[in-house]
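Q: Joint fold for the lines below.
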Amino acid sequence: MSIIVRLDSCTGCESCLESCPFDAIEMKDGKAYINEYCNACMNCLSACPEGAIIEEPVTTGKVLQDVHREKSTGYKDVLVFAEQRQGKVASVSYELIGAGRRLAEELDEGVYAVLLGAQESEAHDLLKWGADKVLLCSDGALETFNEIGRAHV
Amino acid sequence: MNIIVCIKQVPDTAEIKINPETNTLMREGVPSIINPFDVHALEAGIQIRENLGGKVTALTMGPPQAEVALREAIAMGADEAVLLSDRAFAGSDTWATSYTLARAIEKLGADIIFCGKQAIDGDTAQVGPETAEFLNIPHIAYVRKIEEIKDGQIRVQRLMDEGYDVVESSLPVLLTVVKELNQPRMPSLKGKMTARKAEIKKMGMNDIGGDENSLGLKGSPTKVRNIFAPEIRAERTMLKGSSEDQVDNLIQELRKLKCL
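A: Joint structure:
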């Protein structure tokens, strides 16, 4: 949903401007417009004496419609960080691969999983659950939870 | 001991109701509070000052109305308060927020920085760790107990799924805290009077330095496209009969839903 001003009801009284904690409302030609700083906190809805500000439901379109336009960044593929505890992959990682697959299909790219501190058999499971490729680092030092060490790898 | 506690003013989400007709969140007239985890962070900072001496500074990045939250922090016992506010910060995601906080903290100086585990409106839990990275200092998240601070080192218990780890770090360090850490005190009458008269230090874009392009919407790699309450779907079908019947029915249902 997005917050919009119905211009035909807006009288240009500017009551909404003060109510916005994010400075997201601007006046143009005597009417109020809500800009990209809006966080949908909805303070302005009750501030408007004419009831001109409403929330408009947005029909859910494709998640990544804007990514295609910005694809020149040089980044590609979806990377899933697979969590493990005592050598066993956490089940949330399989769910993430599923979500990663959906995004990768829209982008027409691949899903890679990175797994630190576990054995090859766990890596094979990640492939079964839908990863195209698994980057495995099974050094014993990475087995216990140490976020700084893992972040460096 | 120079202690900075990062706090955030958030809508009291416990008070938010769902409009039964439109199925959306009703946020009008919801009171603002200090993010509950940040209250525990303030208590932690104040306790350390009581034991080891020093100063507690409450820091918030937000619109001008966030000053109210800073005064509540002073009422609890913070010595000073800083409001980091500027139009240039508007539209910041967690990356830009952390960058901005880090630049301010660098200017103010700190031995220990406390943050709440996460904000109850954004729920990302990213700002604490990201701020530590921008400051190039270690951080420990989910601190449930502070065991000892001595000789420039700190030892804490970090909450994990199945218990806790004991972790040591050198100072300066950033800690994010969970509710188990302490029982926050209520502001005293004297505290509230001090808070009413206290001078809040203001910092803006020009006071923190850094790269202008890393601030606000411009410095935010992520953008909020849409905020919505999930549809409440309460339909469910109970399958009856023998196991074979239930399996046959289930296969039919899954085929109808195009899952098989």
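Q: Anything notable?
A: The two ends of chain A are 40 Å apart (CA to CA). Chain A touches chain B at residues 1-2, 21-24, 36-37, 39-43, 45-46, 55, 57-58, 60, 85, 145, 148 (CB under 8 Å).
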